[in-house]
Amino acid sequence: MNGKRYSRQRELIYQALCQTDEHPTAEMVYRWLKPENPALSLGTVYRNLNLLADEGVIRRMAFPVERYDAKTAPHPHFCCDQCGGVYDLELPYDPELDRQALLSSGHDVTGHELTFHGLCRKCKPLH
What is the DSSP-derived secondary structure letter of residue 61? Predict the structure, then answer.
């Protein structure tokens, strides 16, 4: 982490993100860290997540509730329509989509985010 002065709480928050693939909300991070860090406030978690996202250390993900991801390289996600879980998909980033969007719209396209929806393995009915 770079930029701002070192903060133990910011480091804890960042490490919590790095140790999960759940793409947690700020509230989830707070619940994970609070038992061992009684002085931690939800506001501190939000402020530090936003600071880390603004610095480009983590990604802010616009789902119905903001989630955060320590993986900053472009990659697609899957969002379960039943439980709300968010998962990384191991698919390559396709710069051709950026080129096609540029050609069809005339906008200066700098990237895209791809999210698939459906039922995750945990929620889909067993057949």
Answer: E
Give the model confidence (pLDDT) of 5-57 as tens digits.
Answer: 778 999 999 999 999 988 999 999 999 999 999 999 999 999 999 999 999 99
pLDDT at 126: 63
Local structure of 116: helix, strand or coil:
strand
Residues of each domain in the chain carrying CATH 1.10.10.10: 8-69
CATH of domain 8-69: 1.10.10.10
What burial letters (b/e) apply to 52-82, b meaning 16+ CB within 10 Å? bbeeebbbebeeeeebbbbeeeebbbbbbee
Query: Helices in 36-89 by DSSP H: which ranges?
Result: 42-54
